[in-house]
Amino acid sequence: MALRTPVGGWPAAVRARVPAPSASVDSERLTGRGLALRYAGTAVVTLLLVALGAAYVSRALGIEEAIDDARRMTRGLAQIAVEPVLRDGLLTGDPEAIAALDAVVRGQVMPDLQVRVKLWDRSGTVLYSDEPRLIGEHFGLGADQLESFATGTVKAELSNLSEPENRFEEPANELLEVYLPVRTPNGTMLLLECYYGYESVTQAGQKIWFRFAPYTLGSLVLLSLAQAPIAVALARRLRRNQRQREALLRQAIEATDTERRRIAADLHDGVVQDLAGVAFSLGAATRSGGADVQQSREAADRVRQAVKALRSLLVEIYPPNLYEEGLAAALADLAAGPGPRGIRTELAIETPLDDLGVDETELIYRVAQEGLRNVVAHARASRVDIRVHRRDRVLVLSVADDGSGMDLEHLPVRPGHLGLRALADLAHGIGAGLTVESALGAGTTLRLEVPVP
Ligand SMILES: Nc1ncnc2c1ncn2[C@@H]1O[C@H](COP(=O)(O)OP(=O)(O)OP(=O)(O)O)[C@@H](O)[C@H]1O
Ligand SMILES: [Mg+2]
């Protein structure tokens, strides 16, 4: 039974014999490693940026939350602890009223968190403070304090420790101050000011950061890990493509080399031998004192043969009629080639070939050419059929001979000979496929399938 094989799978061994240039192998590795490094670097930089951004946002959120807490706590303390012990005597500096408030501040308010407590009147005089040296001092009121007086709202801000009213505070300790209006029993509005250590505010920011960091950073790490296989696969594909490109390049170079060797061999075995023979017989005729008619005729015949052989070689190298007269005419010229070697050649073109693209036209011509060359070189055939037909959207070229065939599974590897392999690559490049069907003693069919619109 005849075996059928895509030509692409053929001379892996030939390819393997050609050593890859070591520089390009190194550069491939570098590309792979470079890509992995670039990927890891990007992941680390992204992680750092997100961590910094998240820290900044959490700090801002934490500060906002801590200030809100301080406001709420001050309001609670004012209502529950301070207002019930406010006496009108505070307005006049009555020591008993001051002592009553001082007891509550020291007993209930200070232990909680405050650093300092002050009670202001509208004029900006301190009526009470846990720091006795401030009581009775006049500092005036700032815009925020005045606003709090006017609107009855709670205000919170960072303390300006350089102001005289804060001269007893440690300059190194940042403070947050909260104001809120309170009333004495006779309805006089005063301003209660509580100071909180700023540390608690920044701690709140950190707390939020630590709460969110594992989710934010964790999800980023997971994302990077999930993407890693994709990155690796892409790097591999890139490397594979590079290798394929290199292999194609090598094959192209080898194919050119092989072609040059073949032309040289053709010239040497054919035309050069013929012309050498002519020169020899003309030389002999001259020496014998005159060319006889018979010798001259033979010499002229051989020169004509040589010219014909040179012409067909030129056509093979660059077939002018492929572009001037079309593919059908070029195939007809090709088919006329094996005739003189005693191989009957039949050509059947069953579909129009005029509107094919340049790539398709050249490929069909070259496959037919290589198929016929192989029949002449390897098949020991008596007949070869070239057929071009169309099946749906596929144009099919077949070159079938009745020769010795071959064992596709045990093909001899001939280094430097890759006529079909090079064509298979060419076919692959334009989406076409090349297959060989053959068995020992059962002839060979080379088939090209080209997708057409
Ligand atoms: N029609 C055929 N009949 C019998 N054997 C064939 C035929 N065509 C190809 N082969 C076998 O397949 C091998 C590979 O063919 P291919 O055209 O790739 O290389 P080549 O003809 O040996 O060398 P090159 O074409 O590079 O000059 C041939 O060496 C030959 O053994
Ligand atoms: Mg060949």
Automatic annotation (TrEMBL):
Main subcellular localisation: membrane
Membrane topology classification: Multi-pass membrane protein
GO annotations of cellular component type: plasma membrane
Identification of the protein by name: Uncharacterized protein
Domain Signal transduction histidine kinase subgroup 3 dimerisation and phosphoacceptor: 259-317
Record keywords: Cell membrane, Kinase, Membrane, Transferase, Transmembrane, Transmembrane helix, Two-component regulatory system
Listed InterPro entries: HATPase_C_sf, HATPase_dom, Sensor_HK_TwoCompSys, Sig_transdc_His_kin_sub3_dim/P
Positions of transmembrane segments: 36-57, 212-235
Subcellular location: Cell membrane
Histidine kinase/HSP90-like ATPase domain: residues covered: 362-452
GO molecular function: phosphorelay sensor kinase activity; protein dimerization activity
Residues spanning the signal sequence: none
